[in-house]
Amino acid sequence: MTGIDSQYDCVVLGGGPAGATVATLVARAGWKTLLVERDRMPRFHVGESLMPETYWVFERLGVLEQLKVSPYSKKVGVQFVSSSGKESAPFFFRSHDARECSQTWHVDRAEFDKMLWDNAAASGANCHDNTRAMDVLFEGEQAKGVRLQTAGAEGNEVSAKVVVDATGKQAILGSKLGVRRVDPYLRKAAIWGHYRGGHRDEQGGGVKTVILQTSQNKSWFWYIPQANDLVSVGVVGDNDYLLKGRGAPAEVFRQELKECERLTRWLSEAQLANELHVEKEFSYSTERSAGDGWVLVGDAWGFIDPVYSSGVYFALKSAELAADCIVESLNAGDTSAANLGRWVPDFSQRSGLIRKLVNAFYSGDFRVGKFIAEYPQHREELVDLLIGRIFDGCRGKIFDDLDPWLNARANAEDGES
Ligand SMILES: Cc1cc2nc3c(=O)[nH]c(=O)nc-3n(C[C@H](O)[C@H](O)[C@H](O)COP(=O)(O)OP(=O)(O)OC[C@H]3O[C@@H](n4cnc5c(N)ncnc54)[C@H](O)[C@@H]3O)c2cc1C
Q: Could you tell which of 167, 305, 386 is best to mutate to test the pocket of ligand 1, judged by most ligand atoms within 8 Å of the CB?
């Protein structure tokens, strides 16, 4: 690793999946690129269940073969369990589309992110961990560089033609510019950890991500079986419901577990393998995604909700699309907002389909299995959405029936109350 120079074509802040992807692709195109991460890599992170459409970004990054020989559990489908304990039929990805790209993984994020980080370094990016971005520097509207803090030197100023904010929910630039908006309808929190020895259901050549509603429908659990007999288990609910006046997170987690009879059974022989973690108020968007000399990607751009495991895929995909715009802008010598943000409208519109599905999930008791039983013609599109297949073809027909179906159920509930 070489030291940090005073001038780069592109400086990328944040060494998660989004930052590593941008840095890899811009460096490969021959532009002088710096990638900085405040923590020591590898670093711990939430977000272990991938969407199958990550496949194409992995292929382009050149990490697909590493993933195929990795010990990670193969994710072959998704299943939902309703508040009454009724299981949907599993949505197996390869029954829908037999291609290899329909299968993905439940990863260890520390290792996985380090793999992408190392790939960026091998692609020619200058990668520095333990290096915190303190500020993004502007001349008028134009981003001109960053101020960094490293172990040896404080206030290191680096100039750049393009600054990429990939700092995740810290969103250093979005916060500085005041363009970040917490989603008022999705003020959620999560308490989560890893168990060893939980129930394991291997069907179809791998495991499923299971989403289980609790009995009163006030929260839901994710169940993500991983390698080494570990399973990631997390409960998600309204911030106030989970974290206000109910005692320590471990106690709240235990209480919520009691509300989920099936999960209690699945964990009856299991032991908590490490401490529980808390994440809160993670759903937000940004009003502007790019400006002259700057662009936001991944969670720094926005994050919807963990329920369909779309976060890492959107981080990778937004980073890939932004990297192509950065390279074109640098080639053209025009790093204006219009050029750097060219990918945004289409990406916002397509990722909005997952946002709609998230809203459906939280609108009362959305029983995925029940809806598909009534509208079997939408099964294929639903599985496409669970795969993350939103960038090819025209999607969204499902909402022609799902929206009225949800409204009818809400009206029926109002009538009962
Ligand atoms: C409760 C919960 C559950 C989730 N579950 C899933 C899931 O199952 N599947 C899924 O796909 N996604 C999931 N996600 C989302 C997923 O974790 C994120 O979408 C993903 O990590 C985004 O990647 P990123 O590269 O944009 O940001 P990050 O992975 O957060 O990386 C940002 C990096 O920037 C660094 N950084 C921050 N500030 C600075 C600074 N000033 N200077 C330098 N570096 C800095 C951070 O240390 C971090 O390493 C979940 C999220 C939550 C909240």
A: 167
